Amino acid sequence: MVNSRPVFLELWRIRLPIPGVVSILHRVSGVLMVLAIPVFAALFAQALSGSAGFAATAALASSALGQLALLLLGWSLLHHLLAGLRYLALDLGWGLDRPSARKSAWTTLYSALALTLIGAVVLR
Predict the structure, then answer these.
(1) Virtual CA dihedral for 16, 98, 95, 91, nearest 10 degrees?
(2) CB-based contact 104:89 (threshold 8 Å)
(3) Which one of 32, 53, 62, 70 counts the least CB within 10 Å of its CB?
C-alpha cells in the first residue's frame, strides 16, 4: 500500500480561502478580548485608586504602545461583532453558496478595518 500523504506540511504555504481567514481571525479576536479583561480590570482599579493612579493610567493609555493596544482591541471588538453577525446569517441559511460566502467574508474584513480606522480618527 502506497501512502501518498505528505510527510511535512509547510503551513506558511497553505492558502486558506477567505472565509477560513475570517474564521481564524474571529477566534483570535475573541482570545484577545478575553486576555484583555484582567489587564483592563487592573488598569481600572489603578485609575480608581486615586489621582496618582489615574494619572499613571492616563499616561499609559496616551502612550504610543497604549494607543496601539487600544487600536488592536478596537479592531478585535469590531471584527468579532461583524464576524459573529456573519455567522448568525450563515446559521439562518443566508449566503451559504460560495460566492456569497466569499463576498460576506471580504465585507467583514474590510468593514472591521474601516470602522476601526474611522473610530481612531474620530476619537483622536
Answers:
(1) -50
(2) yes
(3) 62
C-alpha cell belonging to residue 31: 482570545
Reported as a single tens digit per residue, the pLDDT across 14-63 is: 889 999 999 999 999 999 999 999 999 999 999 999 999 999 999 999 99
Could you identify the residue written with the cell 488598569?
43
The answer to whether 22 and 101 have CB atoms below 8 angstroms apart is: no
- What are the grid coordinates assigned to 70, written together? 487600544
Closest to 105 measured CA to CA, from 13, 33, 31, 23: 23
End-to-end Cα, the chain, rounded Å: 65
pTM of the model: 0.88
User: Binding residue per annotation — 80?
Assistant: yes
465585507: which residue's cell? 107
Is residue 5 helix, strand or coil? coil
DSSP 3-state of 14: coil
SS3 state of residue 74 = helix
- Grid coordinates representing 106 are 471580504
Q: How far apart are CA 122 and CA 43, in angstroms?
A: 24
